[in-house]
Amino acid sequence: FLMRCLFTMFAEDVEIGGFTKGAFARFLESRRGKLDTFVPMLEDLWRTMDAGGFSTILEGQLKQFNGGLFEDHTALPLNADQLELLIEAATAEWQDVEPAIFGTLLERALDPHERHKLGAHYTPRAYVERLVMPTIIEPLRAEWETAYAVAVALDETGKRADARKTVREFHEKLCETRVLDPACGSGNFLYVALELMKRLEGEVLKSLRDFGEKQLPLLTIDPHQFLGIEVNPRAAAITDLVLWIGYLQWHFRTRGNDPLNEPIIRKFHNIECRDAVLAWDAIEPVVDEEGNPVTRWDGRTTKPHSVTGNEVPDETARVQEVRYVNPRKAEWPQADYVVGNPPFIGNSRMREALGDGYAETIRATYSELPESCDYVMYWWHKAAELTRLGEVIRFGFIATNSLRQTFNRRIVAPHLDAADPLSIGFAIPDHPWVDSADGAAVRISMTVGAKGAMPGNLLKVTREYDPGELGATVVFVENFGRIHSNLAIGPDVSSAVPLEANANLSCPGVKLHGAGFIVTPEEAATLGLGRIDGLELKIRQYRNGRDIASRPRNVMVIDLFGLSADTVRSRFPEVFQHVFAHVKPERDQNNRASYRENWWIFGEPRSAFRPALAGLPRFITTGETAKHRAFLFLDASILPDNMLINVALDDAYFLGVLSSRFHVTWALATGGRLGVGNNI
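The chain above was modelled as a monomer; its predicted structure follows.
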């Protein structure tokens, strides 16, 4: 309903299909005090727009709009206040709307979970263009410059007809070039690609006129060339609308009042509503041994904790766990270029966000990929395969800047090192971004892949300033050369392999999966520390990366590794009650069975690494991410957090080796970078 209203407002502002300026707004105003006739009259108008014909509502002839948007003529009854809001919206200048922003805002407005984010920032147009240009426009422009040079040479030798033929052939190819966004959301990337290709088409048509062409070709770039796959049906429908609004805007800018063919909008079925990386025959609900539905937390709904007041998962917000029948890799429609911004879901959040059934199924289906990879890497891998096969000319994706981390490099490197290799033709390892889903500021990477062995352009951010609605101004330094899987140019340190002699010497610290394990020294005392024998081994000093980089927080952690729940209850009853109240509610919502069942123990207690530390008075540690790579000793009584990387050596000689200029230089070159400050 809302999309039909907005397109009708757009139609009256650009005066297409028989609409005159303000016609729809006047109709809305005429329903003040006559709301009982609003629904039948609006449905009659949309019925006429669907089929074409004389509109008794607007008292004029309307062309056929169709395109699927008006097949359903249903109008919703409004109250007086809602009608006034619609009238106010109709007074806006819809012919000037920025389709990409419009699509994002409409998607947020229609999603009850995202409605509160309407005032959040949207993804800046300049950021989208920064990827679309090297992925699509630069190779197309290179082709055009070659064709134009040939045409000029022909024209200079008196072969003007041949010159026109050369330009027409390029134009025909341009009008059949297909662009796919396999995670299109509300259409930002597809719309920007359409507009930039229309600009290039404008240059081509101007050259035709310069070579003496009197009749512009009827063939033109239109939405049928821009393909999308989107799992959210609402977003998929918005993409279709965004593309048509963008196309019609460009038509009136470049061709003025040239008549539009009917139907004015067409149903090309170019936006598919489905999963882009996984296909299946059916989805079955999962039930337990007694036939009861197995459900999980929906991954997004929270509530204040009754004791702490902190936001915790709302256990009443449940969704059905499902099983996928005959799962397989999804197929993509044929396209020349692939570009987009797949979901920002890290490996550790896949079960929570997508469900156990989906996470297990996609990992089994793509068995050639490591289970530790982020969700976006399934898109990256699929596009890389199609590009290496020659089915895609280039692909460009936004990914989190963890793309250059080891667990994702395992996917990139084989494509770059294959006998028929892929090359990274353009990359920005670390770039600011605004997530279109919620307006959150994040850090991302941009990569463009092309078939064959070739050098690429590597852009590194050196400065960001003036963040605002249009995004921060970003200053780059550019290098040219072979770009490796760690998104760097120079020696390929990403191909180095671990030393077997150092196996099992290093490990991250414990991963709690429950903030309730952390206590202050005062809380520890109330739980029995200092008066209950043996508890000093179970409540220990705790350090994370920030603690060792600055002033420690002076917190402790309850470490019940090696004890059963019954043992904890009998030996340390106050500790048991604390963990039961502050950890178990959160663990009960965790998708991983081992975390739920062993709720009193850390999610990752590092059982395999603890023996390496046994008997050492101290060990070496360094922060996983930090502005400077520094190593230091921690006392063996201290338990390190998972954001600390620990080495089971107590000799100061090894601390000196790790702290040496040679090793720090190596660590900086082989490690990844994250965050605004490019933390290492």
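The chain has a mean pLDDT of 89.
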